[in-house]
Amino acid sequence: MKLDIVLEEEEDGTYSVHCPALKGCHSQGRTRDEAIANIQEAIELYLEVAGEIAKRSAAGRSGSSLVELAV
Q1: How is domain 6-59 classified at the architecture level of CATH?
Q2: Given Cys at both, which of 35, 44, 52, 56 links 29, Cβ 3.0 to 4.6 Å?
């Protein structure tokens, strides 16, 4: 899976970064590389939690099944 991120240099020289496709998925770093590494970790955690929520939701509904799709 590939996702776009928005990386912005702040006035103090640090970087903020977010993933527009994942609402609320933001991070930051002292350097560009640190910010990118941090958003990668944030995205992985975001998707892990979203997957767990989807599993619980599907399990709670009769006739529902969770199907994994690689993109």
Answers
A1: 2-Layer Sandwich (3.30)
A2: 35
